[in-house]
Automatic annotation (TrEMBL):
This is aspartate kinase. It comes from the Bacteria. The keyword Cell membrane does not apply. Its EC number is 2.7.2.4. It is an enzyme of class 2 (transferase). Keywords: ATP-binding, Kinase, Nucleotide-binding, Transferase. Transmembrane segments: none annotated. It catalyses: L-aspartate + ATP = 4-phospho-L-aspartate + ADP. The keyword Transmembrane does not apply. It comes from Sphaerisporangium corydalis. Belongs to the aspartokinase family.
Amino acid sequence: MSGPSPDRPLVFKFGGACFITMGDYQRVARYIADRLPEAGRIVVVVSAMSGTTGNLQNAQRDLSARPSATLTAALLITADTVSSVLLATALCEIGVNARQIEARQEGLTASGSPQGARLTGIDPAPLWAALATCTVITMPGGQAIDENNAVVTLGRNSSDLSAVAAAVSLNAEACEIFSDVPGVFTADPYLLPEARMISDLGYATVKQMSLAGAKMLHPRAVDMAERHAVPIICRTCPPDATSRTVISGTASPTAIIADTRSAVWAFPDHRLLAKAVARMAEAQLEDPGMYGLVLDFEGVKHLVIPGGDPHGAAHRICAAASPRTDLRLLTTVRDAGDPESLLVLEGDLLVEARRRHLMHYPSFVQPPGGKARSPLSGLLTRSVAPEPVS
Ligand SMILES: Nc1ncnc2c1ncn2[C@@H]1O[C@H](COP(=O)(O)OP(=O)(O)O)[C@@H](O)[C@H]1O
Ligand SMILES: N[C@@H](CC(=O)OP(=O)(O)O)C(=O)O
């Protein structure tokens, strides 16, 4: 291990999957404290507890089918902010000189839709100023300031983007992203337990995986990391953060992405499809997270939104088409060439994904356990009994 280098702080991001119970904030805090001697300074991007952002969004939709983007952003940012305050609290409690900062102190600027704004600038000065006063900064992920000085979100799951932006801003050696998987696998290990962990992976491949609906990394975060040659290190939530995938360079193993969340509409009328595609392109100017592709299924063209349509924008654009909730996107990201994407019936998705995975990776690997959601994810929307902390 090299000696402390205060000029190159470590940059960590803890995803929502790392925060299931209050004890997890203590575990993460202890891990951060243990790593502090490596650099003397750590910037930690923090996501909302698993499930919280979705719960807030559902609660708001109980009041309004189409809340404004401004109100949605104002609500959703609270979840990551709460989480970053809780982590700073846990750090201070064990004697770390930690400080929580808000979006206005992160140095990130953005424009476009307040619920999915485009990152336009990174100013390192505020982060360095904050680091001059403490050894660990916790900051809510997925937030920036727009031209009206309002706090906006960079879209769902965009904490990864904040983390890479912080790493770029501080000239960090790498951006370490912690979640509920030990690294990136050849398929989502919760869906295909036989998936294999990949130790080295190129930026282009992981970006194709994200664009095909694999949730583990935000595609714009991968883009930015590639442009600035910042390696992303994916590892599992503490305390077992030993194994990892390093994303850098160009290694491109085959991966299978079974997108259980994809949203699909059938467009038998080609003119309606052309209009919808044009409106998608316009919407993308405002919200870069709006991404869709056109695929055939049984001779009919379909518009597909990988990863689903959390804010309902594609539902509005496709209002004149027939939703196909029984179809899902299945993608093979390969060594060379474009990914191969097709639509399959939902009931066949896992069987077909497994068949394709087996063609590339014949042997069986031990499955991980089930995925967890925080019982505290309702903290902001309903009262919960305090949980004893171990
Ligand atoms: N190929 C893959 N390798 C690893 N994880 C994957 C893959 N595809 C999808 N995932 C999913 O990504 C999830 C982690 O991303 P995410 O849910 O955004 O976590 P976090 O909330 O910690 O950011 C895992 O729980 C897993 O289900
Ligand atoms: N509030 C964001 C936070 C985020 O990016 O979450 P995660 O890192 O857990 O995907 C969201 O869920 O949209």
